Amino acid sequence: MRFALAIGTFLILVVHGIVFYNQFGHPWERNQNTYFDQAKVLAKTDAEKAALAARKPRIEQIVVSNFGETRVDRCTTCHIATDDPRFSSHAEPVKTHPYSPTLGDFQKDGKWERRHKFSEFGCTVCHDGQGRGLDAEYSHGKDEYWPDPLLGFVTQDNWRKDHAPKLKGKEYMQANCAQCHTDTAFPGTALVTRGRQIFFASNCYGCHRIEGLSDGTIGPDLSDVGRKWKLDYLWGRITDPKSILATSIMPKFNLKEEDVKALVAFLKSRKGRNFAETEIQRFKVKLTGGAELVQATIKPVKINPPEMVKQGEKLVLDRACTACHKLGDRDGGIAPDLSFEGSLRDSEWVYAHFKNPKSTMSDSIMPAFRFTDDEFKAMTAYLMTLRGQATPASGEAIYKNLCLRCHGEKGDGHGPIAEHLDPYPRDLTKAGFMNSKSEARLVNSVRNGVNGTSMPAWGKAVTEEQAKAVLGYIQTTFTKEPRRELKAKAIPETNPVAMSPESVTRGEALFVNRCAGCHGRKGDGKGPNSLDIQPKPRNLRNSFFVNSVDDKRLFESIQYGVQGTAMPPWIDYGLTNNDVGDLVNFIRSINPKTKGGQHAAAIQ
Amino acid sequence: MAVNLKRSSGEDSDGGKTSRRRMLGWLTGAGLAGSAGLSAVSNFVFIKPRATYGQPQRFSVGKPEDFPSGTRAILAARGICIVREGTKLAAISITCTHLGCTVGAADTGFACPCHGSRFDQDGNVTGGPAPRPLPWFQITLAPNGEIEVDKDIEIVPGSYLSL
Q1: What is the chain B residue with the closest CA to A23?
Q2: One-character DSSP codes across A577-604
Q3: Is residue B125 a contact partner of residue B141, using CB atoms and an 8 Å limit?
Q4: Residues A345, A390: contact at Cβ < 8 Å?
Q5: Tens digit of pLDDT for each residue in A341-373?
Q6: Residues of chain B neighbouring A7 (CB-CB closer than 8 A)
Q7: Rg of chain A's alpha carbons, rounded to an integer?
Q8: Buried b / exposed e along A436-447 (16+ C-beta atoms within 10 A)
Q9: Nearest chain B CA: its distance from A23 CA (Å)
Q10: What chain A residue is nearest to B154 in terms of C-alpha separation?
Q11: Does A119 sit within 8 Å of B35, measured CB to CB?
Q12: H/E stretch holding A301
């Protein structure tokens, strides 16, 4: 008992001693003493020696309030010789901070002068790290919870092992230079400028917003990404987006390593607001921040008509179109295959789709990219030359070549790119749907496409026999129910109710009562019930679709429902042909053919 | 415990040699006393902080060329006045020794606006309630050629840095 007590108290003494030593025997005190001793040897006058002798180790700090929040940088507590040129060849930490013309330092009378004096700028403005820290590990930001480790010098232990070595190098510090030196032509921030070019050239701006530079809405806002994330995360997010967030829809861009590096440095420099910026400058950037900004950063290609197709090809391949689309053996796995584009679309459609994707497909997620008109024309010309390979004869081969990318291996509509398409590809396993439509209509959908959706008109690539062959394959493999004789339906050929404001008003009242639950009050297919329904209710504001179907088909879908979907036969709920006529008029009225066109009068 | 005590008290009467019990007692006592002593020292050390808020006490104020001969430059933010006479330099505090106001330059030296203390060119009190002369701070020429002032070290008034 006594023995244990004695040992115990002795241990307590030892622990106390260790704590005491750690708390009061600081490494920085030893550093400073080393510095004083060596400086005394180098001192030339007695006064200098006396001044050094009077100095005792203590915490040195630089307080800087010119750069955002007040910084307290105690780095010079250890790095005490940073401004003493006699220590330039010593080892860290008692070493002179290097002088360099790239930092703006200059020589005067044979002596170096600093452009950025430590007393004005501190240390962490350029280097990051934890300015208040007095312990090497914590002040350098090695600790994984510190958001800004020494930029380009320190990698944290939890960073990916294969990324970490690439994240070292003082060129990353250009991201901090760019906090003040925002001029894109500034020679000291070449890496950031390069990253900015890649941001535009790889079309990152199409999805991401950076205040003053771009306004994409699909991806996260990157305005202050440099303040939020460390190099490791940025690198990972660019090179392999899904490795960090499994549900990320960001394409893999397969950039070269030095390009990723530039992009990381550029993103690290986006910290929301630069120290050098004023409100009015920001506002000006906002005003001009459109195509001009992109074209000022990346030189637009000068299109010369005889080589148009070639230049278009180069543009399509260089500017990351295949990060989403498929073209030959390049496949981004997000957007449709472009290999047959020339036989599917005409050049007006492609050009309009380039200029504004939503102008040809209401719910397209493709961003409107900022190419020049000539560039768009060249790319269109190139796409028009793409005819794919000859369509195979067998239904199975056709399905695998042309349909699988959207409709999926099992024909259930969950193809590899299906989640990015709106409307969703048709589920071909739903016998109710497949067998309630005439073969002629299905063939029509294949050969003429479905307007306003991603289903293109395959007519030029697929003959009627081939279409029938692939439909036969679908019927036997996916639908698995033989076709039935279609029952005759009592559907008026044309709308019995004439278009009139009264009819539209009645139709709207009916729509709100009966249809809005799924199709939404605005008719955009986003009603409260739509979340639980697959396939999703039709977006009735998709004018390309609505205008492509005739009244007869709308009557059929409303009165007899759409089998295999949640749309019920409204004839069972007591809708008369006149009621449906009002509804159809209402639906037509929210889809004007052109601005101020056919139905505009009725809406007034 | 009581039994234990009794038995060991029997062993204690060996005489001459230090008994095991006494030895252990010493060890315990030394451990406790040492710990208490260290804690006490640590507590006293912590009373005075190692680092203080605000601007550093040791700072550089620029090159000697910035202060031509005859200058009496008041650096209000730093709380000092740089005096240069010929090749001699000095840093004099401009914080009044009375109640800590910042004194201003006057024809005869310094004058405090708060309670009218007056000081001569060297900071000696010539009038008013100030109890002590203005202190002089250590001033050195740093290896990079800049003047460094250390407000933590006061020097004897009248001792200049000669360039």
Answers
A1: B42
A2: HHHHHHHHHHHHHTS-SSTT-TTHHHH-
A3: no
A4: no
A5: 888 888 899 999 998 888 888 888 898 888 888
A6: 27
A7: 34
A8: bbeeeebbbbbb
A9: 9
A10: A54
A11: no
A12: none
